């Protein structure tokens, strides 16, 4: 289906991820190259291929490559604990594992042959770009997705192509995606809604937009992306829809055409809120279905004013059947509740390596005369309403949904029981605030044993995904029992609203910022007291609570901060550092954290933010990164008396964070010159510089004006290489350089849209002034120069640094021009070279 779409619209954009994109033709060619490579490694129908990648263009190329080679993919989310990844790899024994170099070292021991998409890419380029011959049939597997298992281990659901073809066919014939549609991929590929989010647009000519990891729970980010990218199709779980509807700017999203809401019960009151905020008819659909039946099985299009407490799950999709049966497999009359069974062509083949469980859950279909017809026993309670719709009533067993994540409580209980002190463990989900379910663990201990909550949290963190972490642990003398000897889950006490960490780890707030933060945390988490070193997520903070917390933090400190900051800085202490830095603006706002966590010394990068921000995701996860910026709150440059003064100001800034060397410094373009001057000053103060990295920086005095003909041919060349985006870049640079002064003197400065141009103009002006005055002195240390291969001026071979690098000049040529070296794929090379240099110098 994808290849047919490539024929229809080869030049249309197929997939976009941050600043990078691929057309249908490019995506197809890259996937083909990979597929040919995989074929030579023996991939074909029924061969399972593990894929451990984060959300990126490579992930899409990887998935298509596996399918084109005829294989079935097994998603391995790099964010999962290594024990869970180890279990999946062990269970499936995948012969091949597709990944990226940066994940290889964190993978558990396994038997698979590793194919690194970034390293082995060259090999792929040699391969044919033609569609490989595919012998897969509808009965062959497309993927094996692991879902929570009640006995303590996850189970692999085997889905054949048939079910997904049917799913996409139903979606397309019912909701008709067009080539004007943009679909947002929000969910990790280890959950099955990702399958339609990826393949629906790719098979029917829409555009796939990949949200950043964690973005699906950051509603401010979602609104921003929806508006900026004009997203028309997305999926949300009800608890996130609730928060999204309260988000600033949501009323500007009325161009959305389709929202799949599902994964858990959708309250009727939330539907009314949706209509009140967005007023869109036939857009919100309540979709129901388990992983075992290929994504969605029934759906209901939400209507206003229907008075349902809980939205119906509607009727079956094309080629699906629903039966509501009693214990003897007899159909229940309308209005009476029974277990929901699913039949039809969407059914999974079964559970991987689990024939007994497969037999128990996939039973012979007593209503069908077709040979081999089966029904899947969902464990969901439901009933038919008199209008023909189906109503979801809850679960028969101990499976729960927390923010759409499917969790077998038994799996958490089994892990807790592994602790030598724990005798019994019961986990339940409680909903004290509407739409906010939390997991609570109750334990009894072996005689004379004790256990620290921290140890239990660590145990869970090692073995289970983070969404399975209980919010509270309650130790009881005995579990309450019913008269017939079963655990009485209803009589389990409410957890005390106190902090459950060991007392010795409690560190009280030290100043007003920390105090203010602590009181917000206590209010949001409902726990008291909270120490400044406690981790928000360990204390039961979840994505929903983090959104609430951040809204309050932003209000209290009157600062706009991206939610991602909380994920990188999950303690009061870390967050306070960032707020303190923001507090001192504009004079002390120069040190801007991009990534705070990590065991390595921080890398300080001068004069920029967005280029460095994109670099961070490619660097070692242990590498903290800070940007140094000299701008006021409006983005206008702050004037210093030359490069020396600016460098000394930056040094004061970084010393508040890292008082002593060895320092890691770097900068792009003019930022490199400042980093150079900082290195000079720091060395003369006796400090050690472990790294001075210059990204395509010229020594100012060597900059020569290129001749008109050279300029013209360079620009034409870049235009051909980069495409129309280069024109815009070129125009902005030129305009702000040439006409910036006029703009600066005039009132244009007040026009918001011209703000960027004006700030660039002012920046160029200052840079020119600084550069003409600056006479660099030879530096005794080593310089690492990462220079762009496409250079406007060819005269100065090493950009003028040879004479200045007394301790040696290490040169790496990076494919691309001054700006595109910070884009895919070159940015990977930059990150790799940096990492190698840092490791080398610090060792
Ligand atoms: P999963 O395999 O993660 O898709 O989870 C499937 C389970 O989620 C179902 O068996 C239901 O218990 C629950 N579920 C999915 N969609 C809905 C819905 N729209 N309303 C209520 N429960 C749902």
Automatic annotation (TrEMBL):
InterPro entries in the cross-refs: AA_adenyl_dom, AB_hydrolase_fold, ACP-like_sf, AMP-bd_C, AMP-bd_C_sf, AMP-binding_CS, AMP-dep_synth/lig_dom, PKS_PP-bd
Q: Which residues form the Carrier domain?
A: 508-583
Q: Which SUPFAM superfamilies match?
A: Acetyl-CoA synthetase-like, ACP-like, alpha/beta-Hydrolases
| Pfam families in UniProt | AMP-binding (PF00501), AMP-binding_C (PF13193), PP-binding (PF00550), Thioesterase (PF00975)
Q: Which UniProt keywords apply?
A: Phosphopantetheine, Phosphoprotein
- This one is known as Amino acid adenylation domain-containing protein
């Amino acid at each position: 289906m994808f290849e047919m779409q490539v024929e229809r619209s080869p030049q249309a954009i197929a997939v976009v991820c941050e600043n990078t994109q691929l057309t249908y033709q490019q995506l197809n060619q890259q996937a083909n190259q990979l597929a040919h490579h995989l074929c030579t490694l023996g991939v074909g129908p029924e061969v399972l291929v593990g894929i451990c990648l984060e959300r990126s263009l490579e992930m899409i190329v990887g998935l298509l490559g596996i399918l084109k080679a005829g294989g079935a993919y097994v998603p391995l989310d790099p964010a999962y604990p290594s024990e869970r990844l180890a279990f999946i790899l062990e269970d499936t024994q995948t012969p091949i594992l597709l990944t990226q170099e940066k994940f290889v070292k964190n993978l558990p021991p396994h038997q698979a042959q590793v194919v690194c998409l970034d390293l082995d890419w060259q090999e792929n380029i040699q391969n044919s770009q033609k569609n490989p011959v595919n012998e897969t049939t509808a009965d062959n597997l497309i993927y094996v997705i692991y879902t929570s298992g009640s006995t303590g281990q996850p189970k692999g659901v085997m889905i054949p192509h048939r079910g997904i073809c049917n799913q996409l066919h139903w979606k397309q014939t019912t909701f008709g995606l067009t080539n004007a549609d943009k679909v947002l991929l929000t969910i990790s590929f280890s959950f099955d809604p990702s399958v339609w989010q990826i393949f629906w647009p790719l098979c029917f000519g829409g555009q796939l937009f990949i949200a950043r990891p964690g973005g699906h729970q950051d509603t401010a980010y979602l609104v921003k992306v929806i508006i900026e990218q004009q997203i028309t199709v997305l999926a949300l779980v009800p608890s996130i829809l609730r928060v999204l509807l309260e988000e600033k700017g949501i009323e500007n999203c009325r161009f959305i055409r389709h929202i799949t809401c599902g994964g858990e019960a959708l309250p009727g009151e939330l539907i009314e809120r949706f209509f009140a905020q967005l007023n869109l008819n036939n857009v919100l659909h309540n979709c129901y279905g388990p992983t075992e039946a290929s994504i969605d099985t029934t759906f209901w299009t939400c209507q206003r004013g229907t008075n349902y407490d809980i939205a119906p799950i509607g009727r079956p999709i094309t080629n699906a059947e629903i039966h509501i049966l009693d214990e003897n497999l007899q159909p229940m009359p309308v209005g009476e509740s029974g277990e929901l069974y699913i039949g039809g062509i969407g059914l999974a083949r079964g559970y991987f390596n689990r024939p007994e469980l497969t037999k128990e859950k996939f039973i012979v279909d007593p209503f069908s005369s077709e040979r081999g017809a089966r029904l899947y026993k969902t464990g969901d309670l439901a009933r038919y309403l008199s209008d023909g719709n189906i109503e979801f009533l809850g679960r028969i067993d101990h499976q729960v949904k927390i923010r759409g994540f499917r969790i077998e409580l038994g799996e958490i209980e089994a892990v807790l029981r592994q602790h030598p002190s724990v005798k019994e463990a019961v986990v339940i989900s409680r909903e004290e605030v509407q739409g906010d379910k939390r997991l609570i663990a109750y334990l009894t201990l072996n005689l004379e044993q004790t256990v620290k909550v921290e140890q239990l949290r660590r145990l869970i963190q090692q073995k289970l995904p983070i969404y399975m972490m209980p919010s509270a642990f309650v130790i009881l003398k005995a579990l309450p029992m019913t008269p017939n000897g079963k655990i009485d889950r209803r009589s389990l006490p409410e957890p005390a609203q106190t902090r459950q960490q060991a007392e010795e780890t409690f560190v009280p707030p030290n100043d007003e910022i920390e105090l203010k933060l602590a009181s917000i945390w206590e209010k949001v988490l409902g726990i008291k007291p909270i120490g400044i070193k406690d981790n928000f997520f360990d204390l039961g903070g979840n994505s929903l609570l983090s959104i609430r917390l951040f809204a309050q933090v932003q209000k209290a400190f009157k600062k706009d901060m991206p939610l991602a900051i909380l994920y990188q800085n999950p303690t009061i202490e870390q967050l306070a550092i960032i707020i303190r830095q923001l507090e001192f603006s504009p004079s002390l706002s120069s040190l801007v954290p991009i990534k705070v966590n990590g065991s390595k010394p921080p890398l300080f990068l001068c004069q920029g933010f967005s280029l460095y921000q994109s670099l961070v995701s490619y660097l070692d996860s242990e590498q903290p990164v800070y940007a140094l910026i000299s701008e006021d709150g409006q983005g206008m440059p702050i004037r210093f008396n030359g490069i020396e003064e600016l460098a000394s100001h930056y040094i004061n800034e970084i010393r508040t964070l890292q008082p002593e060397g060895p320092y890691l410094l770097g900068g792009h373009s003019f930022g490199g010159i400042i980093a150079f001057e900082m290195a000079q000053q720091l060395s003369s103060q006796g400090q050690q510089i472990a790294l001075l990295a210059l990204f395509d920086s010229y020594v100012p005095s060597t900059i020569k004006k290129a001749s008109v003909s050279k300029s013209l041919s360079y620009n034409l060349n870049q235009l051909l290489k980069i495409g129309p985006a280069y024109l815009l870049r070129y125009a902005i640079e030129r305009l702000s350089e040439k006409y910036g002064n006029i703009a600066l003197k005039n009132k244009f400065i007040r026009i918001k849209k011209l703000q960027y141009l004006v700030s660039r103009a002012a920046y160029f002006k200052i840079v020119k002034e600084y550069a003409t005055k600056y006479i660099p002195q030879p530096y005794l240390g080593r310089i690492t120069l990462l220079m762009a291969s496409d250079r406007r001026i060819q005269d100065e071979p090493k950009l003028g640094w040879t004479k200045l690098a007394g301790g040696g000049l290490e040169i790496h040529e990076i494919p691309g021009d001054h700006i595109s070296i910070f884009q895919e794929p070159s940015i990977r090379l930059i990150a790799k070279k940096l990492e190698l240099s840092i490791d080398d110098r610090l060792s």
